[in-house]
Design brief:
Blueprint (H helix, E strand, L loop, with lengths): L1 E6 L3 H12 L4 E5 L12 H7 L4 H4 L1 H12 L4 E4 L2 E5 L8 E7 L2 E12 L3 E3 L12 E3 H11 L7 E6 L1 H13 L3 E6 L5 H5 L3 H7 L1 H14 L3 E6 L2 E6 L6 E5 L5 E5 L2 E6 L1 E3 L2 H5 L4 E4 L4 E4 L12 E3 L9 H18 L5 H28 L14 E3 L4 E2 H6 L7 H8 L12 H12 L3 H4 L13 H8 L1
Parallel strand pairs: 1-2, 1-6, 2-3, 6-19, 8-15, 9-10, 9-15, 10-11
Antiparallel strand pairs: 4-5, 5-6, 7-16, 12-13, 13-14, 17-18, 20-21
Helix pairs in contact: 1-4, 1-11, 6-9, 8-9, 8-12, 11-12
């Protein structure tokens, strides 16, 4: 039995672990990656130790992850641990958490569980997105951090949002050539966002200044930068060869490319909060589902808390703050501290979270998620695993009450990724076809195992 099991070792998980340890909680961190840091600080300990020169282009903010990892170094942490089941809450045993590590499944009971599984990139289903050579901006940044590698040849970045701007600036600082940037941000972004700029500047001044620096580099990071781009298509015979698009004036273009990285923002990783049947709401601004949480990170599922971007996209600084707040609240629930102490500890972080929410409103207005997600061409693949097209979903929309019934007709969401890459898109396509709100259409029901697992791994539980 552990007091607290934290799933994820990104900024939220690490800050929560350090706080929980300081408050005397018996804590275990389970993280799927080979090293701590999450997506934002991926591989930061090894980079700072073995590739310190890379910090020059990865940036000072990235290096901060090492400080977080050191602060949580006294906590029992298992890297390469893939959590695939969280059991129901019981009065005497808490919740059972099951994970696989080095080919064998293990389990532990937890009085409280903190989900710090972060965000995932929003799938961008354009024609040709399944071609070899087409990937995501986040994937390019991951391999840059993990191994210091990047694609050769003509690299094209397409999409919108801060992460695309960040990768462009990192490539520029590292001397990596970008052939073209196809910016899909709708015109008038700054005008839309001006309403929130004063509050965002007060609540997150450092982030606003960083955004200005990124924006200054953005225009110089590629040989060509096209703005107001629509209608992106990837084409090629067996691999990417060409990218087609329409510019802001309506003129069609075609450019040669060896790698195309897509990005239209990030969304909360839905799998584990859905697995424990936490209540979710549709967020129209971020165009995704997110778990319903109280001010301290508690979900509707008994004993389950959510911290970081898994509870709504607010960024790394907010993830740290929410991790500390959630850990202190767990300590309160277990009787380790009084409510007055929890409130005193939480107050500065709750103020930080308010400032980051103002920043988020600014960013949502400046970089709104694309409205074409539910209106893609019929031939576009939605579910990559089962090769289900948008036309296949629309064909049965009158008969399928929601995504779960859709599985019976199309097998969408039943492949190895278990709906991660198609879940939100299926909801949007169904909503558009049925003339319903996405929140009313709903999402897949997630069942264990939440990740692919072998019979041999499960048998290890009996052994």
């Amino acid at each position: 039995m552990r007091d607290l099991v934290i799933i994820g070792a990104g900024p939220a998980g690490l800050s929560a672990a350090a706080t929980a340890h300081a408050l005397g909680l018996d804590t275990l961190i389970l993280d799927e990656q080979p090293s701590a840091g999450g997506q934002i600080y991926r591989n930061v300990e090894r980079v700072t130790d073995q590739r310190p020169a890379d910090l020059a282009f990865l940036g000072r903010d990235y290096a901060h992850g090492r400080t977080l990892a050191r602060a949580a170094s006294a906590v029992d942490r298992r890297q390469g641990a893939t959590v695939w089941h969280i059991g129901p809450m019981t009065r005497t045993e808490g919740r059972q958490v099951v994970w696989s590590e080095e080919g064998k499944a293990q389990k532990v009971n937890a009085r409280a569980v903190l989900l710090a599984t972060g965000a995932m990139e929003r799938p961008v289903p354009i024609p040709g997105w399944t071609l070899p050579g087409v990937t995501t901006v986040g994937a390019l940044q991951t391999v840059l951090k993990q191994s210091g590698i990047f694609p050769r040849g003509r690299v094209v970045l397409a999409g919108s949002g801060p992460l695309l701007m960040l990768l462009a600036s990192q490539y520029f600082a590292a001397g990596i050539r970008i052939e073209a940037i196809l910016d899909t941000t709708p015109p008038g972004g700054l005008n839309r966002a001006m309403l929130w700029l004063p509050l965002a500047t007060v609540g997150a001044r450092r982030a606003i200044l960083k955004g200005r620096r990124l924006r200054a580099v953005y225009g110089r990071a590629a040989r060509e930068v096209w703005r107001g781009v629509t209608g992106i298509r990837a084409e090629g015979d067996g691999a990417l060869r060409t990218v087609r698009f329409t510019d802001a004036s309506g003129v069609a273009h075609e450019i040669a490319a060896d790698a195309l990285a897509l990005h239209e923002g990030v969304i909360p990783n839905p799998q584990l909060p859905r697995l424990v049947e936490a209540v979710h709401d549709w967020d129209p601004r971020q165009r995704c589902f997110r778990p319903v949480l109280d001010a301290y990170g508690a979900s509707s599922a008994s004993g389950v808390y959510v911290a970081g971007d898994g509870g709504g996209i607010l960024g790394a600084e907010a993830a740290e703050a929410s991790g500390r707040v959630a850990a202190a609240t767990v300590a309160l629930g277990l009787g380790r501290i009084a409510e007055a102490e929890r409130d005193l500890r939480a107050a500065p972080d709750l103020n930080r979270l308010t400032g980051q929410r103002w920043l988020r409103r600014f960013l949502d207005a400046m970089f709104p998620p694309p409205d074409w997600i539910g209106r893609m061409a019929d031939a576009t693949t939605v579910c990559r695993c089962e090769e289900v097209r948008a036309a296949d979903i629309r064909k049965v929309a009158d008969h399928a009450q929601g995504p779960n019934q859709l599985k019976a007709y199309t097998r969408a969401g039943m492949g190895p990724c278990q709906g991660r890459m198609c879940g939100h898109t299926v909801t949007e396509v169904l909503a558009e076809a049925k003339a319903m709100a996405p929140g009313a259409v709903g999402y897949y029901h997630i069942r264990p195992p939440a990740k692919p697992v072998t019979v041999e791994e499960m048998a290890a539980l009996v052994e």
